[in-house]
Design goal:
The complex is a heterodimer of chains A (about 260) and B (about 230). Chain A contains ten helices and no strands. Chain A has about 260 residues and is mostly helical. Chain B has a six-stranded mixed sheet with strand order 4-5-6-1-7-8, with helices on both faces. A two-stranded antiparallel ribbon of chain B has the order 2-3. In chain B, helix 8 crosses helix 9. The chains are: A mainly alpha (about 260), B alpha/beta (about 230).
Chain lengths: ~260, ~230
Amino acid sequence: MRRNRIEAVILRHLYEIRHNANHLINMVYWPVVNIVVWGFFTTYLFGRDGLQPGIITDLLGAVILWGFFNGFQRDMAQGFLEEFWSRNIVNLFASPLSVMDYAVGLISVNLIKALIGLTAESLIALVCYRFNIFPVLISFLPFIANLMFFGLAIGVVVTGLIFRYTTKLQVLAWSFAGLLMPFSCVFYPLKALPAFLRPLALILPTTHSFEGMRHVLAGEGFSIADFVWGLALDLIYLILAVLIFRKMLESARSRGLLVKME
Amino acid sequence: MAVDDVSFSINKGEIVGLVGPNGAGKTTIVHMLLGLISPSSGSLSLFGRKIGQEREHILQRLNFTSPYMAFPSRLTVRENLSVFARIYDVRDPTVKINELLDQFAIRKLENKPVARLSSGEVTRVGLCKAFLNNPELLLLDEPTAYLDPLIALEVREILLDLQQRRGTTVLYTSHNMREVQRMCSRLIFLSHGRVIASGSPIEVTRQILKEHRDAPALEEVFIHIARQQTNAAK
């Protein structure tokens, strides 16, 4: 890994953000729309009798964290897709830039973008709905990091699949996180899922992040078990993701697909 | 199989033409040298090192242009070149970029997004990128394919001037046999993924036409091979 090459990738994507309004929309517009809609919904729920205490903060916290995860995962895959769309992938792969240089540069840019979205959502939740995430943010950080690692693993797998099966699979960049959402216990606790689905939920790092978030919001402190489980699963998925990516890239290279990507 | 049993070496400072009809394997060889395509068997060495094992080191020492590449279209010419200057770790990137923009006569386009350039202008941006790192080996895949005759002539002159001043080794592919004859001191003629002749333009002409000639006739050679290839396919 070389610093100048990582900086080049960061610079390339910062230029893209400057010229392409889609990035600003993904970075700020959708997170803001999301929190506004869910904010109104929780305001409506607030007036209902029989509502369990804490459910509103759980919902708003989940919206903010899911927005972070979804945005980060999408931008990781989309960052590579932009190179395919512009046919710049040949220039990059025929340069001394390594996949690792590219990935680190892209992670840096996307982390900043996802954090801007998270901050915008948190501020709106605070100002409009009096939900203050900031005092518990420190306790959330390990869970946010786990979401980021899982988003990275998904982004790496999706990119590998696109290398091998070309951009006809690009829809995965936007849809993969949605597929996981019902089993990730984003808006409801694990025990709300049918018993037969719980093992599936438990092997997703996202479930542990959202369970951990609910622990914090319920005033039960930081759940070390949820953090450690999430981290361990992330490590496994990251290793698998890198292996899949390498296999797909090698297959794309031997079939000459890198030069035919569009 | 696009290429089979191809082996050649290039001397330092030489301009070697890699020529042949469509489907002969020229671009495949260029892509293999760039590590974009892995050979199904055998190995590939550049600067005495294997591309599969020392990719970064090798690619730092060479550069290329190809009609298969493009640049991020929303970024300006200067932004694109700045990104690649960092990738290749160019010292004084601003000075270097200015120098190349002037040499290829596209300084006035520096703040234009690539999307608004003509294909000939994009080709020249590609050539600027190719010279950013003062490559020891330059792979030029159809570098004048989208240029009008006047610009193509200017680009050839610039390429020859830069090559002579820096002693860059060049592997050149083109369908324009007059251009190849003018640019290259040695040729490697391919057909069906195999080397069928190599040497100076006059040597290649004699080898393929199997008769004595006093002057190179590469266009005739090309048509001869292309017809053979078409007849074989029927």
